[in-house]
Amino acid sequence: MFATTVSVPKAIKEILSSNNLYLQALLSGIANYTALGQKIKPDVEKLTASNVNIGTIVVAIKRLIDNLQSEHDVDKISTDNSDYPVVEGVRMSLTGSIIDVDFNESKFDQFSFILDEIFEKETNHNYNLFQTEKQIRLLLDDVEEIRNIAVKASKKFDGKIRAGLSKITITIPSLLDRNNNKTYHKFISSVSDIIYNSRIELQDAFYTPNEIVLVLDDADAAKVYELLRAKITR
Questions:
Q1: DSSP-assigned beta bridge partners for residue 217
Q2: Which long-range contacts does 24-29 make (Cβ < 8 Å, 24+ apart)?
Q3: What is residue 157's predicted lDDT score, i.e. its pLDDT?
Q4: How far apart (Å, rounded) are the C-alpha atoms in residues 96 and 147?
Q5: Which regions of the chain are under pLDDT 50?
Q6: How do residues 118-133 score in pLDDT, each as one tens digit?
Q7: Contact at 8 Å (CB) between 123 and 192?
Q8: For 76-234, which CATH superfamily applies?
Q9: Is 133:90 a contact under the CB 8 Å cutoff?
Q10: φ, ψ dihedrals at 82, nearest 5°
Q11: Cα–Cα distance for residue pair 100/214, rounded to 1 Å
Q12: How many CB atoms lie within 10 A of CB 20?
């Protein structure tokens, strides 16, 4: 829940920080400030406990985005001299509000019932599963029915749940690693370099030949998404 009775700029910052889709659209320059202002106006007024003029909201949104772009050096990073490879066909997506469920050395032979329940509930929800010899990691949409399954599983298998996360999925063209191994490894290295240079903490990362999944705090994901999109996609 948001704090009550705050200033308009602080209210807008809290609202946008909790919704990565809004923040992503603003940082990408594709959002209409007035339309977004109208949409979040009820939440702003609830947080500030007062009536707020739409013009005041629009000005506060613009100032916030200007500050974020300056703070995280979006312009500087997008015009530096780093030799990042731009690969044709790379696709990116940002998914907000996910939970990370970590099972260490669980009874994996009994774990299938969890997946069965998730698949049974699965409609439009996204998930990722990563497994090693001693660990299973699940990235799931943080919706009530899926969270309830995860909580039940974590109790049964001594798992840990982290919430307040987002994931960036980078899909790499299927023939890139086969046709040009050097370009593939340079691309992977570039993704790591961009995140490191941003000084934003990465919560976790998973790499496969055709996909990179990056896990970040909700508040940081849209900023990292925009940095990566500006450097590695065409």
A1: 165
A2: 24/94, 24/222, 24/225, 24/226, 26/61, 26/65, 27/65, 27/68, 27/69, 27/74, 27/222, 27/223, 27/225, 27/226, 28/226, 28/229
A3: 67
A4: 15
A5: 1-4, 73-81, 177-178
A6: 666 555 566 777 777 7
A7: no
A8: VC0802-like (3.30.2130.10)
A9: no
A10: -65, 140
A11: 12
A12: 24
H/E stretch holding 167 reads strand 160-171
Cα dist from 169 to 57, 67, 151, 214, whole Å: 32, 26, 25, 6
Sheet strands side by side (includes 211-217):
127-131, 135-141, 91-104, 160-171, 211-217, 204-208
**Domain limits, the chain:** 8-71, 76-234
Contacts of 38 (CB under 8 A, 6+ apart): 54
Token reading at 135? 């660990």
DSSP conformation letters of 104-163: ES--GGGTHHHHHHHHHH-SS--EEEEE-SSEEEEEEE--HHHHHHHHHHHHHTT-EEEE
Amino acid at 48: T
| 185 burial type by CB count under 10 A (0-12 exposed, 13-18 middle, 19+ buried) | exposed
The neighbour count for residue 214, using CB atoms within 10 Å, is: 24
Average pLDDT, the chain: 76
pTM over 0.85: no
